């Protein structure tokens, strides 16, 4: 009891800050799934990914009139203490960062959750960043803490890819060792690649959201059991990620679309829940309109469809997708990673 009273006094005397942080969503080009511990601990992993200028933002206001905690996200909450929050990610983040006696919290996102853009990781990175004291933050420390929230605290069968991209930003090749240590390789973004990313890579929302942890659980179990088809597909995806990294580094953008298509064919072998007939039809519509490749982002089962489109076919692909009633999310490269600012409260 005395320790709790001393902690309350310390928190009351600490300088209060209104904090705002944002972390970017991400688009994976190749290697997704090889960062999962079930595979990476066997073979090591490699993911080629880029952060986009679409974000999850978190605001922490360190007071409330009645001393309670108010949270405004997908499900509004009003609780007596942060430990009573039903948002698992937020509750675990507060356990690591330290409690707040009263607060008003809010999150905002450019895309729905559960859509394959790494939203849960971006939320966790942004919240942890907002809860840190003002000043420079090591992106590696932030990524490791956020991945520990999801992997260790919550026990979700995910890898570190999303957390590193939300923290670092840019275009990266993430090498995952067998001990799950991550080496961050910064890939150059020349004018040819930048134009391709902003003009020729198109994102379309399938209209279906899902829990990535649930979708990835099937892949995790198949890998742990040594299923030949799953492990073999992941090995080929691993090799493809090396090819993608070389193409990106050399500005060979014409190779990216066909590699995305090959990646999608391999990804469909990981689990029956990766795709659905409606998603297959949507992708075939894009291909028929001129797309030279594409794949579903995240674990599969829904979310955003990424398609690569030559210049001459962009209008036709957009028209074909519009006829099917799907929404495009336009984007460009984010190079800043997670950013935070604080003001006296």
TrEMBL record:
SUPFAM superfamilies: GHMP Kinase, C-terminal domain, Ribosomal protein S5 domain 2-like. One of its GO terms (molecular function) is kinase activity. Residues 90-170 form the GHMP kinase N-terminal domain. It comes from the Bacteria. The keyword Metal-binding does not apply. The keyword ATP-binding applies. Pfam families: GHMP_kinases_C, GHMP_kinases_N. Keywords: ATP-binding, Kinase, Nucleotide-binding, Transferase. Gene3D superfamilies: 3.30.230.120. Residues 244-320 form the GHMP kinase C-terminal domain. Belongs to the GHMP kinase family. PANTHER family: L-FUCOSE KINASE (PTHR32463:SF0). This is GHMP kinase.
């Amino acid at each position: 009891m005395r320790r709790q009273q001393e902690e309350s006094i310390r928190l009351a005397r600490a300088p209060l800050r209104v904090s705002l942080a944002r972390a970017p969503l991400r688009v994976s080009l190749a290697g997704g799934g090889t960062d999962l511990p079930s595979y990476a601990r066997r073979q090591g992993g490699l993911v080629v990914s880029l952060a986009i200028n679409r974000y999850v933002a978190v605001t922490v206001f360190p007071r409330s009139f009645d001393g309670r905690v108010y949270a405004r996200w997908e499900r509004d909450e009003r609780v007596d203490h942060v430990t009573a929050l039903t948002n698992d990610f937020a509750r675990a983040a507060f356990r690591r960062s330290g409690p707040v006696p009263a607060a008003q919290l809010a999150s905002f996102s450019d895309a729905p959750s559960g859509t394959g853009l790494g939203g849960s990781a971006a939320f966790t990175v942004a919240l942890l960043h907002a809860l840190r004291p003002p000043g420079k933050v090591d992106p590696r420390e932030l990524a490791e803490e956020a991945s520990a929230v999801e992997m260790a605290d919550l026990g979700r069968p995910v890898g570190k890819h999303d957390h590193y991209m939300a923290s670092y930003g840019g275009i990266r090749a993430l090498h995952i060792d067998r001990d799950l240590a991550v080496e961050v390789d910064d890939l150059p973004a020349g004018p040819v690649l930048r134009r391709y990313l902003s003009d020729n890579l198109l994102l379309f929302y399938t209209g279906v959201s899902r829990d990535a942890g649930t979708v990835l659980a099937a892949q995790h179990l198949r890998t742990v059991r040594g299923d030949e088809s799953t492990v073999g597909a992941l090995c080929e995806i691993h090799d493809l990620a090396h090819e993608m990294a070389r193409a990106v580094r050399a500005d060979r953008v014409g190779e990216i679309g066909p590699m995305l298509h090959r990646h999608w064919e391999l990804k469909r072998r990981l689990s029956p829940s990766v795709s659905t007939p409606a998603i297959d039809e949507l992708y075939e519509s894009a291909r028929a309109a001129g797309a030279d490749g594409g794949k579903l982002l995240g674990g599969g089962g829904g979310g955003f469809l990424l398609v690569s489109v030559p210049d001459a076919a962009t209008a036709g692909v957009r028209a074909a997708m519009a006829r099917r009633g799907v929404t495009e999310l336009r984007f460009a490269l984010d190079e800043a990673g997670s950013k935070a600012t604080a003001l006296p409260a």
